[in-house]
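A.,

Following up on our hallway conversation. Structure tokens first:
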């Protein structure tokens, strides 16, 4: 990787060449709906196809990061892109997140649409000043004169056996910041439709993938496979309808929530599962509408419990739908400790399907004594 970077960066002012050769992007397309599923696609292929199609449609889009080119991505998300688009649009970089993130933000200032890949979002901490102070705040501080159409993407959250410094969820960190949009795909449809939306968006987008989902296959429809397909940012998806309890989740935890819902159904509990898809903006309307129907809420996330996404969802429901609750809100999150390395402890530190099942049962079998309180 360093040899490729030395070859590309040491031969001349490549960024200047990129800035001269690429042109600003056209306006984003309106998101479309989708129909019944027709075939299967892995999340890895969904991301790869989205990158390919957006780079083909818009010459201002380029990809930059460690090993994205000659190695075709640490997780093979960028497979085939270097051969197709060349080293001016698929740029291998040295191991310097602060450096290439700053270059990407500067390119976005000039009307390009960079996609910055972090090998893991844990390493985005090296570049957080560029992400927050340079990207997120520039549109506001310039009174709308500067747009920063940039995507920061890569694996986020717990992996497997890689320790605390590589296994942390940054959804709550970045969702805290005005000026950023934060997306968390679960399925192949999510990955494809949301990544396209992120690339076309005029604002900086944090795109949090999950390493353990890359190889998972999901059904996709013919419309999802269409090059014009795009999902709206800020809209959740009801993955499973129910009437007894609402379960909100994002990324890998959506799959766990669906498994829990299936177990609950065998015990007579009908759970509604909401795939959040977008953390900022958060689809508060969809969440509250579901809670007003089911009268119970369980939030699920991999991240730390304090100041987490679940805490924000709970507050939204308290503010807008408190009188509809028939039981206390249940919050499922990762353990409030750095991620252990040992496999048995690692499993205990991350929410499991059984945790969601137990929380949903508590919510359904325990009622708030409103009458007694009155």
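Then the amino acids I'd put at each of the 374 positions:
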């Amino acid at each position: 990787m360093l040899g490729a970077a030395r070859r590309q960066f040491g031969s001349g002012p490549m960024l200047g060449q990129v800035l001269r050769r690429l042109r600003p992007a056209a306006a984003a397309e309106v998101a479309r709906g989708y129909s019944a599923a027709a075939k299967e696609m892995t999340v890895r292929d969904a991301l790869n196809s989205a990158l390919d199609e957006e780079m083909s449609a818009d010459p201002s889009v380029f990809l930059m990061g460690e090993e994205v080119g000659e190695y075709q991505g640490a997780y093979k998300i960028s497979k085939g892109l270097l051969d197709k688009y060349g080293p001016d649009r698929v740029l291998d970089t040295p191991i310097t997140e602060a450096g290439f993130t700053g270059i990407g933000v500067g390119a976005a200032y000039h009307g390009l649409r960079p996609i910055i890949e972090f090998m893991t979002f844990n390493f985005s901490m090296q570049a957080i000043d560029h992400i927050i102070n340079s990207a997120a705040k520039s549109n506001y501080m310039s009174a709308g004169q500067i747009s920063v159409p940039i995507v920061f993407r890569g694996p986020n959250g717990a992996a497997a056996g890689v320790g605390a410094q590589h296994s942390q969820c940054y959804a709550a960190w970045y969702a805290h910041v005005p000026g950023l949009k934060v997306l968390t795909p679960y399925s192949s449809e999510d990955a494809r439709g949301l990544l396209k939306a992120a690339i076309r968006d005029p604002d900086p987008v944090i795109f949090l993938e999950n390493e353990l989902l890359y190889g998972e296959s999901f059904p996709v429809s013919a419309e999802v496979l269409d090059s014009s397909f795009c999902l709206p940012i800020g809209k959740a998806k009801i993955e499973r309808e129910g009437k007894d309890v609402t379960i909100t989740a994002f990324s890998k935890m959506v799959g766990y929530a669906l498994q829990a819902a299936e177990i609950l159904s065998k015990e007579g509990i009908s759970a509604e599962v909401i795939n959040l898809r977008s953390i900022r903006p958060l689809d508060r309307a969809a969440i509250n509408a579901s809670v007003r129907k089911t009268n119970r809420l369980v939030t699920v996330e991999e991240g730390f419990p304090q100041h987490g996404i679940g805490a924000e969802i709970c507050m939204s429901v308290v503010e807008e739908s408190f009188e509809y609750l028939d039981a206390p809100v249940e919050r499922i999150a990762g353990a409030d400790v750095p991620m252990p390395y040992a496999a048995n402890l690692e499993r205990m530190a991350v929410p499991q399907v059984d945790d969601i099942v137990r929380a949903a049962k508590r919510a359904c079998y325990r009622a708030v004594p409103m009458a007694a309180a009155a």
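The first strand starts at residue 39 and ends at 42. Curious whether your intuition agrees with the design.

B.
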